[in-house]
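> run fold Aquaporin
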Amino acid sequence: MYGSAPAPEDDDKPFAEGAAPYVAEFVGTYLLVFAIAVNSILAEPWGPTAIGALLVVLVYIFGPISGAYLNPAVSVAAGLAGQIPWRTVMAYTVLQITAGFIAGLACYGVFQMRMGVAPVAPFQFWEAAFLELLFTTMLVFVILSVTASRTNNPSSNQNNFSGLAIGLVIVAAGHAAGPISGASLNPAAAIGLEVGGDDGAEAFGLAYAFIQLLAGFLGAACYRLARKHEYLELCGEPSTASKLFCELFGTLLLCTTVGICLTQHSNATPWAAGAALSSIVYSMHDVSGGHVNPAVTVAAVLNGKCPVERGLAYCGIQLLGAFMAGLSLAAYRGDFSWISIFAVETVFTCVLALVTLNVSSGPGPNWYFGIAIGSCLTLGGIASSKISGLLNPAVVWSVAISAATESFGTPSLAFHCLAFCLFEIAGGILASSLHQLVQDIPHIKTRSF
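> ok
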């Protein structure tokens, strides 16, 4: 999958060649779970980034050999998506769980410390389970979208960003959900860590594994919804329903990532947000454009890259996704002047929208567009994190909705929400104007979102 590797065939092949995919899955899963186990013991603040970087490397190494699934939930999703036969799914799953089990034993033997997977106090199981379900679904969806899709990864011109997009999901999920659930996102890791964990009421390994396998089904379902046109072999671009679903799902994922990081006062919030946005853009850019931001949509509409009717529908569905995310997020507050907030929100939203417009221009596809867009969110988030750092009306809306659960009916909350949104929309309008100014070469072709 990750490298568009064909499913292993057993007919008329030398033993070494036929066994290579299975060895690759075992070794890759062992290395990944061992790294997750080490991080669970050492609890390094930037551990999720290290694990994400490792996954990027493993994908590019083992992808051409086995597909580099390295996760039973992903293997099941690949079977549901019709990418590999079920006998291969079963073989991979057994090998991955075995590798996770051995990695857990090895890590316990090295450190002689308890590991296990469990909600981090004071959070309860269902709060942790929701994040494991959501982010494992995100992982599966991104994997299928950047590797299995015939339009996003055509066999005649495969993309070069699949490993990067997949690793960035781990970065986003680890920094957001790690302090709450541990963010293993992998049944092999959940079971492997439980080998050296506590027994009894505090042993959640099997429960986590079940939730993550369920996410494999959900991720495959989301993939089919987003790319129904590929399964039906329809000509032309994706349906409006598929576009709206991508914007809804993408906005929900981004707002949840940002909101959870904010509630945990994470120093990695901008990095996690940028990683989430990059992976989302990589996974759905060829369906909806991956706006997941009303300000970007406004800029695209004003620039003629998105029809007005579609833009209005995008904004509405993005706010719905933000509303859904906001139900689980906590309130925010700021202690800076409105002039400071106006400056950072308008300027950095303008940068984000302008880069989005520019990297979508050109005669053909490029591999850097997702990381370029995500880096803008990281840049703006870091630079303005002490003041506001939201840069997205959908995120503002989701945070305001969550705050309303504690202070419903507060006039200042509605005013703050409206002000932030207007500042960011102004940034989108400014980006559209700047983009039109610099497009002074009439023969440049642009891709429509």
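The longest helix spans residues 15-42.
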